[in-house]
């Protein structure tokens, strides 16, 4: 299975909108093994990876968290900040040293509300990321379960 390239800001946001968003960026680092966020926590930030690898995880009661996706340079980490009730749906951990741009979600949402064109552009970007990840998850599930389903018929 080939991994599609990340949906880059330059491909979906105009120079003006990209500049407005990046003006809010703050550079941060996460050490290897650092928790970036936990499922159920308040989603008040999001990140774009500059370097390193972040793993999205699904907590499983009584077991280790199940890895869902690995994200690398140029990829968006976190989408729950955009949708009420603004709580994380997954967890994230830095698998290597991660350098990222961090964004204050309430500030971005305020700007989105104040400028419908900007808000639409950011919403479409996050929506495209979600659609791509949903398709990747679908493909992984088919890879895992389709062979078993074919033998049970």
TrEMBL record:
Gene3D superfamilies recorded: Jelly Rolls
Positions of the Cyclic nucleotide-binding domain: 9-78
Superkingdom of the organism of origin: Bacteria
A Pfam family assignment: cNMP_binding
Name the record gives this protein: Cyclic nucleotide-binding domain-containing protein
Originating organism: Streptomyces cirratus
Source organism phylogeny: Bacteria, Bacillati, Actinomycetota, Actinomycetes, Kitasatosporales
